[in-house]
Amino acid sequence: MKQPISKTMREARGVFLDSFLLKNIVLVQAVGICPIIAIGTHLQYGVVLAVCTALVLLPASLFMSLCGDKLPPWLRAPLYTVGAGAILLGAAVFIDRVISHELYAVLYLFIPLMAVNTLVSYRAGGFSVSHEPVLALTDALASSLGFGLVLCVVSALREMASYGTLWNIPLGTELTLPEAALPYAAFIMLGFMAAFLQWLKSLLSRRAEKRRGRRGAQR
Predict the structure, then answer these.
(1) Whole-number average pLDDT of the chain
(2) What are the tens digits of pLDDT across the range 128-176?
């Protein structure tokens, strides 16, 4: 059952904060980790995959919000997967012919795989079906931004550590750590980022409790 439209804007703010930060799709829910581990070694790669994720998740979430509850459950996943594949095919052609053939040569295997990324099935096939379009799009945008932020941070750190560059621009550092491009380094970075997020959430929670205590004392 879809939520009342009168609560949409207020709920949208809560959905955005939850999906982007407090319940980050990667750091809290451990969804969509594989692309970060496999190809998040250069900031350019991270940006491209983050944009591709948004291009897939936004229309898929809108479609599932509008039509998902009218479709049999067995038909939902094939529909948004085929649609995602078509979008990503167009994105791959655009990257190859307009942006950079070299970039496409590196990502040609990973771009199509974004169509079956668990992030898409988890949010579009789960959250969006039971929510209004505005909330579904808000969640899709926040999830894409949350995923993209983590992907780009990890990609940038690994590129700087492994190759001494950022966006393929030399940083002038002589000391590099090639091992940072290996999968285990990404796992370590994700672990530290997840721990930092939990510390931040705990800090915000304590401050909120203090504010409530002060208001209660004033009353």
Answers:
(1) 89
(2) 888 889 999 999 999 999 999 999 999 999 999 999 999 999 998 888 9
Contact criterion met (CB below 8 Å) for 160 and 176: no
3-state secondary structure the chain: CCCCHHHHHHHHHHHHHHHHHHCCCCCCCCCCHHHHHHHCCCHHHHHHHHHHHHHHHHHHHHHHHHHHHHCCHHHHHHHHHHHHHHHHHHHHHHHHHHHCHHHHHHHCCHHHHHHHCHHHHHHHHHHHHHCCHHHHHHHHHHHHHHHHHHHHHHHHHHHHHHHCEECCEECCCCCCCHHHHCHHHHHHHHHHHHHHHHHHHHHHHHHHHHHHHHHHHHC
